[in-house]
Write a structure and sequence with these properties.
Elements lengths: L29 E3 L9 H9 L2 E7 L10 H12 L1 H7 L4 E6 L9 H10 L9 E8 L5 H17 L3 E4 L5 H14 L7 E3 L7 H6 L3 E5 L8 H11 L4 E4 L11 H11 L4 H16 L43
Helix pairs in contact: 8-9, 9-10
Amino acid sequence: MCCSHSFENEHQPGTVPEVFDISAVKGMKFFDPHVHMTSRTTDDYQAMADAGVVALIEPAFWLGQPRTGLDSFRDYYSSLVGWERFRSSQFGIKHYCTIGLNSREANNEALAEQVMELLPLFIYKEGVVGIGEIGFDDQTAAEDKYYRLQLDLAREAALPVQVHTPHRDKKRGTQRSMDIAIEHGLAPYSVIIDHNNEETVKEVLDRGFWAAFTIYPFTKMGNQRMVEIVKQYGSERIMINSAADWGISDPLAVPKTAALMQQQGISAQDIELVTYRNAITAFAQSGQIDETEFTSTIDQSSKFAGNSILRGGQQPRIDKSSIIIS
């Protein structure tokens, strides 16, 4: 649930964008804290690994059409802590997720009530680093109700919260999201306010929340604008993500933005904080993130529930550099 309204983009018609040279980010490592890999291909996983993405977070979100029942949620959550986690590991990328009822689907109250009973069965599972993405879409009474209930759930489980801010009336929705989080006893430092822009960033930072930015073509935030934000506000409590999903999006948004920041004089330390370290610090409050696990070996001959990512006669890639022989 990551795009619907357009913001002015910095690329002008008729201009030719500069080609991304992957060598510009060679040796860097990245953590994408918001990317919907369920919607992406294995080629995307490979491209992300090649560009230095070592770990990611996949928030539960809207799949693009109405659910037919509770089992649709159950299967989806199961895939986030199961198959997708395995699929990511086959490309050497550590996969985490956040679990929640997204704002758009909160408006189906009959189903939302059932989902609320399902959530406690998933939020304590291995690899779940927060409640998310939750918050407001149209800012309805139902969205308010289930946002509050899930904040209570996060507080009880001592998990960070990943907040989706609305595309329409963003400033008011962002302020309202923060007000309610504080009202429900959440420390701002445990709440990641996502999809920020120039209109919201100052207040989010001033109030002590984490400010996440989604680099998404033609909609939320272009990476040239992101460079200017880091120049103005610095790198403290700021992180970027791709939110790549089933829409026209870019799973390499984080490394591409790092390359642009480097090109335009942002320090290596600030780039590292915005594209890697800050996301780890924020979501490690879950107690689930261990950086030593980011360097897992790759063995594509392994299986999940009897299934592998290999089709037909494809040959597996096995990391021969490992000291472990099995």
